[in-house]
Amino acid sequence: MSYYWPMGRTPPHPEVSQFGLQQVLEALVDPVRRSIVTQLDASGEDIKCGDFDIPVSKSTATHHFNVLREAGLIRQYYVGTARMNTLRRDEVDEAFPGLLAALTTPQARAAQPLAG
Amino acid sequence: MSYYWPMGRTPPHPEVSQFGLQQVLEALVDPVRRSIVTQLDASGEDIKCGDFDIPVSKSTATHHFNVLREAGLIRQYYVGTARMNTLRRDEVDEAFPGLLAALTTPQARAAQPLAG
DNA sequence: AGAGAAGTACGATCGTCGTCAAACTTCGAT
DNA sequence: ATCGAAGTTTGACGACGATCGTACTTCTCT
What we know:
The structure is a homodimer.
Chain A: H1 21-28, H2 31-43, E1 47-48, H3 58-71, E2 74-79, E3 82-87, H4 89-95, H5 99-103, H6 106-110
Antiparallel strand pairs in A: 1-3, 2-3
Helix pairs in contact in A: 1-3
Chain B binds a DNA duplex through residues 2-4, 6-8, 26, 30, 32, 48-50, 56-67, 78, 80-83.
């Protein structure tokens, strides 16, 4: 049996209607995960897992990306062996207007210990 | 020695400049505490600890109020034996614009399991 | 003064979460 | 075909936090 879902396929993503505030907040409360979101927001481009500036091991990083994806904050897809990450800006805004904006404010940015 | 700070005095409150995004988010991620904030926001009035609709014991409630106060979200003062709680709306808005608004949106409100 | 109401402090428990290392899989390039 | 790069899975560990009961304090009211 396959413990890995095929790399050519995309992992499961929640619909906007399935987004939960509790889950989204739990995802955003972790500094590493918030840094990932901030970096995605700042770049405006999709970023592969390995290209983020985060101070954790690969396995921990995988965990964080899973949490973000399951909460609906990011979309993931494969390009070769690389896992790309997209910020689901519009969809998160639709579910919880102003939330991401509040976390990417200059004030919020300044309060971020990790790189943004 | 006094283990209790006198009831006639107010407990320590952080200045706006001391507010930390991490601390604020950690305070708001708990459903009980978010419910407290939501109830304060909805009423527009100060509310005493005992008058909140929260499903926890008194000692746990005390803990939650401490967390909220130390994060800067509420201001506390005594009236007799009652501990009053004020939402520090303007100050939180100054520190992190849009954050509280995003959590009191209709969408966010609808996503709240606990009473608002 | 005494009783009760409103919270607080303390200690203990229990679950969850972030973290890592090691073994594994999958893909691309040589 | 093989090797390395990129992630994933699993299991374990440690820390932190939400919760409660009990004992305590402080105030108000009678």
